[in-house]
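Blinded run. Sample ID left blank on purpose so nobody reads anything into the name before looking at the predicted structure. Input follows.
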Amino acid sequence: MLIPDAVHVWRDADGDYHLEWDTESTDAAVMIELLAEVPHDIDVHSQQRARVSGLPHGRRHFFRLRDEHGNEVLATERKLGMEGTPNFRDFGGYRTGDGRQVKWGYLYRSGQLSALTDRDIDLLATLELDLVCDFRREEEQASDPSRLPPERAPKIASLPIVPGSNSRFIEEAQQRGDGQLAFGRDAMFEFMREINRDFVEGQQETYARMFREILAIDEARFLVHCAAGKDRTGFAAAMMLLALGVPREVVMRDYMLTSRFFLPDREIARLQAKYDMEHMEAAAVRPMLEVHEDYLAMALASIDEQYDSVEHYLQSALGVGSPEIAELRRRYLL
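Blinded prediction complete.
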């Protein structure tokens, strides 16, 4: 039997679609149907993987996967084929605990948008975004301004997040000539866990404003993003999915997809220069560019320690009570 939450579709920068799926039985047959009458080629690599090529670039394409028992999953690409930002994803499509489904085409997450190509801009325009929530620091926003479609440009909500006292860690690392010894991989890993705790304990007003900005626009199609699209953005996406009733294990699965699309080794030199950490070994810096379950788990543990439930945290800390949750679910669930 086809497992609904184990169907993954992504588009590479060349425009080819990649499909993966899991079934309860490894030899179960799955049929793939493109929901558009356009020329295309489907190459089934195995019983769990396929590649579709030849599709037009300027639109999104939906697929129906059907197993031999008649079970169906309708899906489109989770990672969009952007050339200038590798971690641009639709975080809809997930099932909630009560069997409903988050809509595709309304909830997006990404890294920074300053390097988008003209073709990326054309694709972005087709998404018809109403709102972009930018969690980058003010200096990041100024030095790397976002490229957005010139027509029907979305509202930009500047929501800078600077992790409170944790910034002292970076400042001390910058000042130490022996940073590769004093600040090894383990210390940086722990620093990243503490940043995620700070999202819960020190960034409540910023994430509360995110929800207010989204709710202020009727049926908003929105994008949340930061520089890499993994930490500040990852927590934002997690809170939205939890508010919609998506189970924690599925939220964590979405969070960890960053590890498939964002490659730390390509970004280490840029990060070292950005934070004046050239004296530190690459291995010590790498945890800042990685994604680990422990990072988000630290944030969720902080919520569990201080609140009766995620719902209690959403209401007490972020101003997302029963009326707001009901409105979000009305908008974004099928």
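Unblinding after everyone has recorded impressions. Residues 177-181 have pLDDT under 50 and may be disordered.
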